[in-house]
Amino acid sequence: MTDVRHILITGASRGIGAHLVRHYLAQDAAVxxxxxGAPPLEHERYAHVQVDITDEAAIQAMFADIRRRVGxxxxxxxxxxxxxxxxxxxxxxxxxxxxxxxxxxxxxxMTRAAVRLLRHSKAxxxxxxxxxxxxxxxxxxxxYAASKSAVETFTRIVxxxxxxxxxxxxxxxxxxxxxxxxxxxxxxxxxxxIARQAIPRWADLDDVTxxxxxxxxxxxxxxxxxxxxxxxxx
Amino acid sequence: MLVTTAEIESVVLDAVRNxxxxxxxxxxxxxxxxxxxxxxxxxxxxxxxxSLLIDIEEALSDRGFDVTLGDAxxxxxxxxxFRSVPVLVAYIHNSLSTT
Lengths: 234, 99
Description:
The structure holds two protein chains of two kinds. By secondary structure, chain A is α/β, with parallel strands linked by helices. Chain A contains eight helices and seven strands, in the order E-H-E-E-H-E-H-E-H-H-E-H-H-H-E. A seven-stranded parallel sheet of chain A has the order 3-2-1-4-5-6-7, sandwiched between helices. In chain A, helix 1 crosses helix 8 and helix 2 (56-69) packs parallel to helix 3. The longest helix of chain A is centred in the middle third of the chain and has 26 residues, at 93-118. Chain A is globular and about 50 Å long. The termini of chain A are far apart. By secondary structure, chain B is mostly helical. Chain B has one domain (5-22, 29-97). In chain B, helix 1 crosses helix 2 (46-62). The radius of gyration of chain B is 13 Å and the shape is globular.
């Protein structure tokens, strides 16, 4: 069992997170998914934790449990995120707090706790999620894009802090994908965004998986602090 | 539930011994009750200090004591609470007594 890769994925209930769960189970990894919602599937190598990643105490308790039960972690994928589309002048404070809490603080809480286990891995990996909304500086997504810019800076600095432990830290920035996150965005807005990409089409879930796979490869030990956007954004 | 300074000292020294397992022979830490930990008299670098503090936090957590050793106050104090075993033990005991 010691050769089985242990992967923790946030936002595992649906969308990209659920896709990543299935993808890494198919690669014989042991996967722990966490989300506020229900598990995406049942599998002998899948464990699900219903938790809010903005709840610092709950995250610490989850990692204490993982340390006692599993004792190791090789990969953390900070996929969980929420979006809020609103002009700045009309954005409620509570909405801005929710976006920053989930997208940035959640990533921070998970990373801080995970490093303690990842430092014992032969090839520890952290993969964060940003968005093309950050480099495109999209009107109407100021708070969301700012939260992702925070994730990007966090990624670059964490990469330096954890490299002595043999851990890499990178981020993938998906362009629009047909998930619940984009379902509420007006089609014309999405089409305008896609038109700005070097590759002007919708991305699909496997486009994201491909980048995450690249970061997770053993041969990617020299790849850290990098942000890779889909579609040629940035 | 109260924790004694002797129990904390035992946790700290165990963590130092554990750290020594991964350190080269010429960079071993002194694992005695009066030993220096972090500063000019110790071979411990900042990365080693991070590892040591994580190990101590986890060992205390396993015993039911949750403490955050690297808080902003500790990191910014001119007299580091991490400079020696007895100073760290007293710092942890004080932190646990006031939480």
